[in-house]
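ugh ok fine here u go
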Amino acid sequence: MLVRSGIILLKYWFSVSDEEQERRFKNRIKNPVKRWKFSPMDLESRLRWLEYSKAKDTMFAHTDTKQVPWYVVDADD
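structure:
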């Protein structure tokens, strides 16, 4: 509907591997300068990594179209 009305829609997904996310979280916990970035929600998200990944796959299955594809960016760097 948005595209048919003339809107240019770009969808980007910044993908971070489970291993990289774990490394970043551990770094935030250890580093006092970065510790402020760590929240209780971060802990919860680590516990739900598999569920979030499945939900992302389902979302892509329903919303990745030829007219408006998802662009996946490797964000491990």
